[in-house]
Amino acid sequence: MDFFTAEFWSALMAIVVIDLVLAGDNAIVIGLTARNLPKEQQKKVIFWGTFGAIALRSLLTLAVVWLLKIPGLLLIGGVLLVWIAYKLLVEEKGHDVGSAASLWAAIKTIIIADTVMGLDNVLAVAGAAHGDFILVVLGLLISVPIVVWGSTLIIKWVERFPVIIYIGAGVLAWTAAKMIVDEPLVKGFFTANPVLKWCLIVVIIVAVLALGRMKKQKQVKQAA
Fold first, then answer.
1. Least CB-packed of 4, 52, 117, 150 within 10 Å?
2. Where are the transmembrane segments (predicted)?
3. Rounded distance, CA 120 to CA 187, Å?
4. Distance between CA 15 and CA 179 in Å, rounded?
């Protein structure tokens, strides 16, 4: 595709918009994960986590044809994201997490979460790119600074307003629930039964927040 055509720029704009739709969720994942690390390691986690996420998202977009053939992809991804939401919620702050293992564990969490949340958007990005990989990469490179800026801002907010942790976990649980009910294998059933669909979404969100709070309270009692 020619770099100087209206088609190229309109496609690029569409990809950036699609990527930014996920920016809020991704910033929450990065921010909540990095909050447990020392200040000097937070920037490393944000940089390498974001870099790894871009690489995997690009590869996923290239593999979109094969992804379409994998049954249950959104369902598996949604279940994994439920666990990530819970894990982020119950992680304790204030422990010695200065080791390399903790640093790379945080980076791994960011990459996995971004990849899982990006699965249902890969098709949209691939469609907007019209098969042009350069467009996909450019779109990601444009939207990434916004994600990084958002994650560092969230770290600062979380330090002042801990309730943001619960809001973030709720957003991730919502994303996970939507992925599960949008899985093609079960989407027809939930479309025909919208009440059950919304009940499941609410149950997943409430379960993540309630179980996370119970675990957190247990941690506080054990530390006392």
1. 4
2. 12-33, 45-67, 73-90, 102-127, 133-154, 161-180, 195-212
3. 13
4. 20
The H or E element containing residue 19 is helix 6-21
pLDDT digits (tens, 9 = 90+) for 118-165: 665 665 566 566 667 777 777 777 776 666 666 667 667 777 887 877
Burial call 65-95: b when 16+ CB within 10 Å, e when fewer? eebeeeeebbbbbbebbbebbbbbbbbeeee
Q: Measure Cα distances from 3 to 11, 12, 38, 170 in Å.
A: 11, 10, 43, 41
Residue 58: name the closest of 170, 154, 128, 134 by CA. 134
Extract the tokens encoding 14: 């569409």
- End-to-end Cα distance, the chain: 63
DSSP 8-state class, residue 63? T
Provide the token pair at 120.
Answer: 């249902």
87-214-163-112 Cα dihedral, nearest 10 degrees: 10
| CA–CA dist 175, 88 (Å, integer) | 14
197 Cβ contact partners less than 8 Å away, ≥ 6 residues apart: 181, 190, 191
